[in-house]
Design goal:
AAA_N_dom; ATP binding; 475 residues; alpha/beta
């Protein structure tokens, strides 16, 4: 048993403590003077890495660096997105941010942290490492910046190596891609002239969806099915040796919903839109540069193609004072640039399909022709539901309206305008009936002069086949 008299005196303990403290300070000073701080960080990191990875000799660690040489490491970015959904209450520091063009918050690790994930009963440890580096190793341009080394460590039992590499890592990549798609902010890109034409963008906030478009339901299904098939056929396009792109032609009278359909397609696919005004492009080379600057998963829109490009007439005469010619356009959309990106859609619109050169209409350039026609009764049902919140078929004047729609050349835009004129449903319906009666009179009544000089009126009924649907697809 130890007695109090066997213990050292307080002065002896204090002297020993002072000696240890002085030795520690001397050692720290010596280390700071002899060993550069960058090397110190590396040594500390190596010791920490050794201790962490040797807790169990059966552990294997995969290191995912932020960059692969000069390029961004796709797997690091995927890891950052994936782990943002796996934060545990034990995590002490998180980095949170938001840009003006985003609707969501961005959350990621702020300091070195460790979390544990379980995938098919396999325990996998994620460790985020953030180390400060010396600025002296970087260019002078970055001397005001704090240099850092960031990476992820993925640790697990060695026996699960093949499972993690072949199953878990691909799962992380796919999961992060899905998370990105859900958070994607669609953009509308347009040309600006700053010495030369370049793309500028704003947030695409057009509310149009397939549910809201006033067109025949069966044709909607056809368009949606075509879009779905296109985005799912990456391997198919690669196998047959074709660029992964598709072209659509929207044609029909003004006000029939061509722009709304484009917005609905973009919202459905979550594709950006590039609005290309050909009259602002001065040369074929500028045109190709602009096309190369578009991103994957995008829709290139060229509206009013019959007005935007000077086309040779059917007699072979060349256009005068042409800046954008048919040959330049065809070379650009069919050239090698199409292999420089994936999932590209090109949409042309026109009010006068008959004016377009046949070379522009062939498959491969415009694969699907969609006729945006006058409003049908099916389209009216959708408009009445959207604008008035009613089932038009249950209204007392439905039969009258149905008859008027059948024999009227009226666009969805015109009817929508009538339905917005009042918050009173009865007044809107009455106004719509009067409007349709005026349209019917204009269509059915046409004054003609017979040989005997007697004026009569000839009843003209629009093509019934054309009136059945809003859209005619030609594949």
């Amino acid at each position: 048993m130890v007695s109090l008299k066997d213990l050292p005196s307080p002065s002896t303990v204090y002297a020993a403590y002072a000696s240890i403290s002085a030795s520690t300070m001397l050692l720290r000073t010596t280390i700071n003077q002899v060993i550069p701080s960058q090397l110190q960080n590396s040594i500390v990191s190596a010791i920490r890495h050794y201790i962490f990875n040797n807790r169990s000799t059966s552990q294997l660690t995969l290191v995912i660096q932020e960059k692969d040489g000069m390029s961004q490491n796709e797997l690091y970015q995927a890891s950052e997105i994936f782990t943002s959904t796996k934060f545990h209450p034990c995590v002490d520091y998180l980095n949170i941010s938001k840009t003006s063009k985003e609707d969501h918050l961005n959350i990621k690790f702020d300091k070195s942290e460790t979390i544990v994930d379980f995938f098919q009963d396999v325990e996998i440890t994620w460790r985020f490492v953030r180390e400060k580096l010396e600025n002296s190793s970087y260019d002078d341009d970055f001397e005001d910046c704090e240099a850092e080394n960031k990476y992820f460590e993925l640790s697990f039992d060695k026996k699960h190596k093949d499972f993690v590499v072949n199953c878990y890592v691909p799962f992380v990549l796919e999961k992060s891609k899905a998370i990105q798609e859900d958070k994607k902010v669609l953009k509308l890109h347009t040309l600006v002239n700053r010495g030369s034409a370049i793309w500028d963008s704003i947030k695409l906030e057009h509310p149009s969806t397939f549910d809201k478009i006033a067109m025949d339901p069966n044709l909607k299904k056809d368009i949606i099915a075509d879009l779905d098939m296109f985005v799912q056929r990456k391997d198919y396009y690669k196998r047959i040796g074709k660029a992964w792109k598709r072209g659509y032609l929207l044609h029909g009278p003004p006000g029939t919903g061509k722009s709304s359909l484009i917005a609905a397609m973009a919202n459905y696919l979550k594709f950006d839109i590039y609005d290309l005004q050909l009259m602002n492009v001065k040369s074929g080379s500028s045109f190709r540069k602009l096309l190369l600057a578009t991103c994957n998963k995008s829709i290139l829109v060229i509206e009013d193609i019959d007005c935007s490009v000077e086309l040779p007439d059917r007699m072979g005469q060349q256009p005068r004072n042409s800046q954008s010619t048919l040959s330049g356009l065809l070379n650009s959309i069919d050239g090698l640039w199409t292999s420089c990106g994936d999932e590209r859609i090109t949409i042309f619109t026109t009010n006068n399909k008959e004016r377009l050169d046949p070379a522009l209409l062939r498959p491969g350039r415009m694969d699907m022709h969609i006729h945006m026609s006058y409003l049908s009764i099916n389209g009216l049902k959708i408009l009445a539901s959207n604008y008035l919140g009613i089932n038009i078929e249950s209204h007392s004047r439905y039969k009258e309206i149905k008859h008027l729609i059948r024999y009227s050349e009226v666009t969805p835009a015109e009817v929508a305008e009538e339905l917005m004129k009042s918050s009173n449903i009865s007044l809107c319906i009455q106004g719509l009936v009067e409007f349709l009666k005026g349209k019917k009179t204009g269509v059915m009544s046409k004054q003609t002069t017979k040989a005997d000089g007697i004026n009569t009126f000839e009843i003209q009924i629009p093509d019934a086949k054309r009136q059945k649907t809003d859209v005619v697809a030609e594949v």
